[in-house]
Amino acid sequence: MVAFEAPCGQYRGKSGELIKITLMKLTKKQKAIIYGVIFGDGYLQKTGTQNARLRVEHSKKQEAYAQWLYENLENIFSDKPKRIDRVHPKNKKTYEYVRLQSNASPWFGKLRQKFYDNSNKKVVPSEIALFLESPLSLAVWYMDDGYYYARDKSAHFYLPNYNQEGRARIISALKNNFDINATAYCRPDRNACHITINGADLHQFKNIIKPYLIPSMRYKLPLTP
Questions:
Q1: Any idea which architecture 123-218 has in CATH?
Q2: Contact residues for 157 (Cβ-Cβ < 8 A; gap 6+)
C-alpha cells in the first residue's frame, strides 16, 4: 500500500462548506480506478491553492456503479453515494442523480494540475501513458463514459472538448499500452468528439476490459458476437 502524505485537518470554503483534508493511503488498484474515473466524468474540484477533491455524479440508473466505486474507494470518500435532484434548464423536468465526493487532498491537487489548465478546462496530460497503463483504468473509463453502437459494432468514448493534440495523445496511449488502433471523430454541429474502436481492435478491447466490467455495466459492451 502506497501512502501519500498530506496534512490532516479541515477548513471552511468560500461558501462556508466544511472541507476535510485527509491523509490518504491508496493501493495500486485504487489509483487505477481513480485515473479511469478522471478520464471519464470525474471532476477534480479545486479546494485551495494546493488541494482538490474528486466529485463523481451519475444518473440513478447507474447507482450500482456508484456503489461499486464507493466500496472500492471508501477510504477517500467523505460519505456514501447521495441521491440528488436536478431540474433540467430547458425542459424543466426533474432528474435524479447519485453523487460521490472525496475528502480534499494535496494528491488530488497535483492530479488537477495535470488534468486541467489554468482556465479550469480539462486536458489530456502529456504523461497519459503513465495514467492509462492499467486495463482496470481503461475499463473504468469505459464504464464511466463509454457506449456501444450496435449498428456499426463499435465502441466509443465520449470526450470533453479536447484539442487535436489531446486526442492524438489518447490514440497513441491506446496503441502503445494496449495495442488498440482507435480513431477520433468530432461533430462540428454538436461541438463534441469521441474515440472509436471497431473491427479486430474491438475484439482486442473486449478481451482487455472484460474481466473488470461489473454486472450492471455489461450492457455497454456485448461480450459475445
A1: Roll (3.10)
A2: 141, 142, 145, 146, 194, 195
Domain residue limits, the chain = 1-119, 123-218
Q: What is this structure's pTM?
A: 0.86
Report the range of poorest mean pLDDT among 20-29, 31-40, 73-82, 187-196: 20-29
**Helices 106-115 and 28-39, interaxial angle, to 10°?**
40
Contact (CB, 8 A) for 139 and 132: no
Question: If one looks up domain 1-119 in CATH, what number appears?
Answer: 3.10.28.10
The dihedral built from the CA positions of residue 69, 74, 77 and 83, taken in this order, carries a sign that is positive
CA angle 220, 137, 146 (to 5 degrees): 25
Chain position carrying cell 479511469: 36
- Looking at residue 225, its pLDDT comes to 53
The pLDDT value recorded for residue 18 is 41
